[in-house]
Structures are given as structure tokens and as C-alpha cells.
Write a structure and sequence with these properties.
Helix content: 40-55%
Number of domains: 3
CATH superfamily of the largest domain: Biosynthetic peptidoglycan transglycosylase-like
CATH topology of the largest domain: Penicillin binding protein transpeptidase fold
CATH architecture of the largest domain: Orthogonal Bundle
Structural class: alpha+beta
Mean pLDDT: 81
CATH class of the largest domain: Mainly Alpha
């Protein structure tokens, strides 16, 4: 042991215990202050200007209407309908608060108790091999969404926390919540709750049920994780978890939760109607004309309302007549071959579902021929079901022109065709 260290220890032995304790405490305070100073420097260095949020004016969707006022198209890079906070229904707000930040109106930007609870919970999740939960408040999410780079580092987290304190001092709670509910990505081309209500349920916010509002509140953690068709069971479980949190937070009763949780999760594709397909080529001309006249930024970000001259009823009738004529022509001309071919065997339904189909083919659907018999053909659908076509329904497909005889032999197993 070095001589100087021996001398130091001998001297320390002669000091009263309270002095040793005092020196130790003082050293601890110095270290703590130095650490706090380092955290402050790292967390506040080159912070973006949070005051830009006071002028929050996000890109919004431009909408195209037919002559009768019906919606026929939307143009947007970010599909969003801005809704002021006072117009967002309370059930929607309460669902998001329960799912994302129950103490939003109590904390000053960072929920330290929530942070501690989340990390205690995450110990068990990590040990179980599950992904840890985040502990960001709504204010922190606004800071991350609007002002910070998307990186998962300690320095970014510190910057997020300090920025959240500044945002809270500059903006009121309602303004922060307004920004969050209009900015958050919720899947299905939806930025913000108003666009999501339309794109998932084809409803304005005011018409959502509590179960539907809870489902939207389940989506910020990852819309693909709770897809309403591909992962419906997980989506319902997460929705019901949000409803349970609403009970804990006294927004709904346990009986109401049971009622809402029993509701099925049914979403709609609001652009699947015949009026949208009928207007597709016309809409493209409208888009080009609008860009020529107003510029791309106005068309894709400006929230325009464009009234056009198209009569969708007449257009639908014209397309139906054209389709009927083309189908009759095909039957007279005879078989032109399948859309494509796929390999039969295990997984044929998934391969069929992956085939890129022609647009606007409804009510025709794509099937694969699985078997050809003397009097019928068996066909398979993308959901795995098998059906039978009578010989009379496929006889015309065997009539070939002389020059086509070497090209095809009528329907064959593996052919992907359209049936109605």
C-alpha cells in the first residue's frame, strides 16, 4: 500500500465520526450536483424552438365532391382533418387519456411517478421476454412527434423531458392535447382522431360509440399490432384494456365497460363504393387541373374543398353498360386465358390472395381452378373455400379460335380466373 494512502487512513482514524460523515455527505452532494449539471447540459443543448407549436397548422386533406355534393376522392400526403379541442367529444378524449396519460392534467410535462411504475412493471416484462412499455406523457409525445429526431438514445430522452417542461410552460393543457389528437398516426392513412374515425368507421367523431373511441385510443402503440381484420383478437383485447382503464379512471362504470366490451369490432372501407370507382379517371383529371392551377402544396396540404361537375349516378350506369358489353364480347370471342397461374398444393389460398388483381372488378372475384372434371370444375377462393362450377358455366371458355388452339386448352388446374 502506498505510503501516502497509509498516512491518509491513519489520519482518518483520528477524525470524529461525524466529520467523516460530513465529508462523505459533502462529496456526495458535489457528485450529485455535477451529475445534475451534466444532465441539464445534455438535456438542454441545442433544443429546438418549442414556440413554433403556438402556430401549429398541420397539413390537412383536400376533398373532391361530385355535382350532388357526395365525396368522391381525397388528396393528401397526410390524411388529416383538423378538429379544435372543444369539438373533440369527451368520450374520445377520456379514452386517449386513459390509454396514454391518465395524469395528464396533473403533471408538468413528465410524470415521474408513472415513470417509476412503468419501469418496475418493465422489469417483469423484460424477464418474461416481452417488450417493455413506454412511459412518455402526452406532452413528451408531442415533443417527440413535432420537434425531435426519431432516435432511441438517452440524450434524446433527456432532451424530450426538458422540452416537455418548456412546452407545458408555453402552452395550455388543452392546446397540447389538441396538437396530440390531431397529429398522432393511427394507421389506415389516418393522422389524428377525426381522420381515423372516418377511415375506420366512416363516422364523424361525434357519432363514435365508446367502444369505437376506445379502439382508436388503442392504436398509438402500433396500428399494425391491432389491425381490425388481420389481428382482430388482439385489437379487441387492447380496446377492452382501454375500457378497463377508463373504469379505473372513473370515466365509465364497470357495467358500462361490460356493455361496451361486448360490442364487435367492425370497420368499413369508405372508399369501396361504386361512386369512387366510377369517378376514378375523372378525379385524376381534377387532380391534374387543380395542381396546374393552385400548385401541389395547396392540393395535398391545403385542406381544399373541390366541387366538380360529375354526375356519379350517370357515370355508374355508363360503366355498368360498358362492363356488360365487354363481358358479352369476351363470351363471343371465347377464352383468352387466365389472369395468371399459381401453384396448387399447401398454401394455395395465400398465393391466391397475393395475386395483384385488376381494379374495379366487383362483383367479380378471383378464384383458382383446383380441378377439372367432365361435367364441372372446382374452384378455390382466397379464404380457402371450395366451390363447383357447372359445365354449362365453363363451356364457353373451351371454345377457341383456330389460331389459339396451340396457346391454351381451356381451363386448367392452377388458372386464376374471375367468376361472378
Amino acid at each position: 500500500m502506498p505510503t501516502w494512502l497509509i498516512a491518509f487512513l491513519d489520519g482518518a482514524k483520528r477524525l470524529p465520526w461525524w466529520r467523516i460523515f460530513g465529508f462523505t455527505a459533502a462529496g456526495g452532494v458535489v457528485i450529485a450536483l455535477a451529475g445534475a449539471a451534466a444532465i441539464y447540459v445534455i438535456g438542454t443543448r441545442d433544443l429546438p424552438d418549442h414556440k413554433a407549436l403556438t402556430e401549429y397548422a398541420p397539413p390537412t386533406t383536400s376533398r373532391v365532391h361530385a355535382g350532388d355534393g357526395g365525396l368522391i376522392a381525397e388528396f393528401a400526403r397526410e390524411h388529416r382533418l383538423f378538429v379544435p379541442i372543444e369539438s373533440i367529444p369527451e368520450p374520445v378524449v377520456n379514452a386517449f387519456l386513459s390509454a396514454e396519460d391518465k395524469n395528464f392534467f396533473e403533471h408538468s410535462g413528465v410524470d415521474f411517478m408513472g415513470f417509476v411504475r412503468a419501469n418496475i412493471t418493465n422489469i417483469g416484462r423484460v424477464l418474461a421476454g416481452r417488450r417493455p412499455h413506454g412511459a412518455s406523457t402526452i406532452t413528451q409525445q408531442v415533443a417527440r412527434l413535432m420537434l425531435l429526431a426519431k432516435e432511441d438514445t438517452v440524450s434524446r430522452k433527456l432532451r424530450e423531458m426538458f422540452l416537455s417542461f418548456r412546452i407545458e410552460r408555453s402552452l395550455g393543457k388543452d392546446r397540447i392535447l389538441e396538437i396530440y389528437l390531431n397529429q398522432i398516426w393511427l394507421g389506415r392513412r389516418s393522422y389524428g382522431v377525426a381522420a381515423a374515425a372516418l377511415n375506420y368507421f366512416n363516422k364523424p367523431l361525434a357519432d363514435l360509440t365508446q367502444a369505437e373511441a376506445a379502439y382508436l385510443a388503442a392504436l398509438p402503440k402500433g396500428p399494425d399490432n391491432y389491425h381490425p381484420e388481420r389481428r382482430k383478437a388482439a385489437a379487441i383485447d387492447r380496446r377492452n384494456w382501454v375500457l378497463e382503464r377508463m373504469v379505473v379512471n372513473n370515466f365509465i362504470t364497470a357495467d358500462e365497460r361490460a356493455e361496451f366490451a361486448a360490442e364487435d369490432l367492425v370497420t368499413v372501407n369508405r372508399f369501396a363504393g361504386p361512386e369512387f370507382n366510377a369517378a376514378s379517371y375523372f378525379v385524376e383529371e381534377v387532380r391534374r387541373a387543380a395542381i396546374d392551377e393552385l400548385g401541389e402544396d395547396a392540393v395535398y396540404n391545403g385542406g381544399l374543398s373541390i366541387r366538380s361537375t360529375i354526375d356519379t349516378k350517370t357515370q355508374i350506369a355508363a360503366r355498368a353498360a360498358l362492363r356488360k358489353g365487354l363481358e358479352a364480347y369476351d363470351r363471343r370471342r371465347s377464352w383468352r386465358g387466365p389472369k395468371t397461374r399459381i401453384e396448387l398444393g399447401e398454401g394455395w389460398d395465400k398465393r391466391l390472395a397475393a395475386v395483384e388483381l385488376d381494379p374495379d372488378i366487383a362483383p367479380w372475384v378471383a378464384v383458382v381452378v383446383t380441378e377439372i372434371g367432365a361435367k364441372s370444375a372446382k374452384i378455390g377462393f382466397a379464404d380457402g373455400q371450395i366451390a363447383e362450377l357447372a359445365a354449362d358455366d365453363v363451356a364457353w371458355a373451351k371454345r377457341l379460335k383456330r389460331e389459339d388452339i396451340d396457346k391454351a386448352q381451356g381451363l386448367q388446374p392452377g388458372d386464376v380466373v374471375y367468376v361472378n
